[in-house]
Amino acid sequence: MRVLGLSAFHRDSAAAVCVDGELVAAAQEERYSGLRAESGLPRRSARACLERAGLQTAELDALVFFEKPLRKFERVLAAQLQAFPHSSRSFARGLFTWLGDRLWLRTRLAEEFAVPPAKVQFVEHARAHAALAFHASPFERAAVLVVDDLGEWASTTLARGDGSALECLAQTHHPHSLGLWFSAYTQFLGFEPGLDEERVEVLSHSGAPRFEREVGATAPALADGAFEVDLLRFRFGHDAERLFDASLEQLFGPARQPGAPLRATRDDARDADLAASVQRVLEERVLALARELQRRTQLDVACLAGEVLRNRTLLARLAAEGPFRELFAPPALGEAGAAAGAALEYSIDHGAPRRAQHPSLALGEALDVAALDGVESAAPRIEGAAPREVAQQLLAGRVLAWVRGAPELGPESLGARLILACATAADARERLLACVQRADPLQAVRVLARDEDADEWFELPAAARSLARDAACTAKASARLRELAPSALLPGGAVWPQLVVRARDPELHALLGELGRNGRAALALCASFQLRGQPLVRSAAGALEAFRRSSLDALLVEDRLFEAARE
């Protein structure tokens, strides 16, 4: 069973190939187009996936799209008509889009990818998310929680996975969406909805939830873990441009204009306190959903997916206070991962066995190091560079890019495309981000530590251990970590950990070991290797170009170490 899965037309378009129940290739279109959160049809990433899998489109058994367009059009049309005449402008735009070619997607996909129309299939959006979460997990049976922004109708799904079967237990439908609700507050706080929710999460660590009651009233809790959204306060049901209603300003004052100073000081902390309040209410609503899911399934392990569950502070609280003994979240929780989930769901639903999946989803095209041969002024300082040479660079106070193997699917690199700095320098975070033009007070960095050293550096509940291996949660820093790496701390003493497992990433694990020699701390700070406003670096040539445009001190491509020219 050879299946190509696709996601498109929302954000983070991607492609993935599943062969007999195993994901063998996955790539995001933004890495090829250069457009952050690319939403167009993933032509180039699909070609790259097929090439990695060694397949031609004629050999595919199915091409599977990550949602059902007719059901989505039904939802869009119903929402627009219900809001008419307030939706008149967005209705005209939406109708033009859908009557153009979106309704005839089977024909378009068949033509674009040269497959018979009968091979083009569709999987429900929530089911695509749930399939990746469960089928990529190590569990034979698990509760499955999907908390998303929007798909066809479902925004939230409670499900149970058992072997090859996925059973939907309950759903919440649009416009009652925690994802859209959080995005509306993201826009209210002057950030870009759909892209900057992480900045609101980071901002929340600087504030106090003094607006919790008022914010909670805009998404009140119901019985059995359910919730609803106060639709008088929001416009996202019918307007994709302005998500909140003017009445929200009656509660919290004027919305912050993009680029305006943040109100996050002791004298005026409105923005930080509102972010903290929104974060707290989100956590309470998701905790209620998790408890209801556990009550329905009576299982003690859970798999997570959906855009909302990319919130690391939320997952930390779910691990600490939620009802599950262990949590699993795939590295690509959002729309890109749904392409892989669509391929997995169709393949396993049609008889393919469940198989162990690549843990970091590093399934993009192979790194073409030979492309650097003969490039002018690209002669490496060291051939065959080992972790010891890299550690020496970091210990000397340098910031280095680390590029190895195939790129991962998802918003963050877990080991293939990183920038690294020694964690113990007082200005390590600022220098790390400034080197790639990402100096931003709301940009968090990760603390890399060996998995076996986790208890020395972090206070992690047992349920969060597997999450921390994929950098999917925050954690409270130990007293020693607060002393040694103060620049990595979020307000309140939390950090964003990534535990490096020797069997999964022996080179990165070895690097940490070298940093920890002679009684030093086996720690590093890291962020994904991307320039500001750009997607993650993909190729060897792209890494060299980004290195030249940055102020990084060195670049490692596989075992070739380049140093920046010094005047």
Task: Tell me about this structure.
- 35% of the residues lie in helices and 18% in strands.
- The protein has 567 residues and is of the alpha/beta class.
- The chain folds into three domains: 2-125 and 334-349, Nucleotidyltransferase, domain 5 (2-Layer Sandwich), CATH 3.30.420; 178-328, ATPase, nucleotide binding domain (Nucleotidyltransferase, domain 5, 2-Layer Sandwich), CATH 3.30.420; 369-563, DHBP synthase.
- It has a ten-stranded mixed beta sheet with strand order 11-20-19-12-13-18-14-17-16-15. The protein has a five-stranded mixed beta sheet with strand order 3-2-1-4-5. It has a five-stranded mixed beta sheet with strand order 8-7-6-9-10, with helices on both faces.
- A hairpin with a 2-residue loop joins strand 19 (554-557) and strand 20.
- It is globular.
- The termini are far apart.
Which geometry do the CA atoms define?
globular
Query: How does CATH name the architecture of the largest domain?
Result: Alpha-Beta Complex
* Structural class estimated from helices and strands: alpha/beta
Straight-line distance between termini: 57 Å
CATH class of the largest domain: Alpha Beta
The averaged pLDDT comes out at: 93
Number of helices: 20
Largest sheet, in brief, is: 10 strands, mixed
**How many individual β-strands?**
20
The CATH topology of the largest domain is given as DHBP synthase
Poorly predicted sequence stretches spanning 5 or more consecutive residues: none
CATH homologous group name of the largest domain = Carbamoyltransferase, C-terminal domain
- What would you report as the Rg, rounded to the nearest angstrom? 23 Å
Task: Please state how the strands of the largest beta sheet are arranged side by side.
Answer: 11-20-19-12-13-18-14-17-16-15
- The number of domains is 3
How helical, in percent, are the residues?
A: 25-40%
Strand content: 15-25%
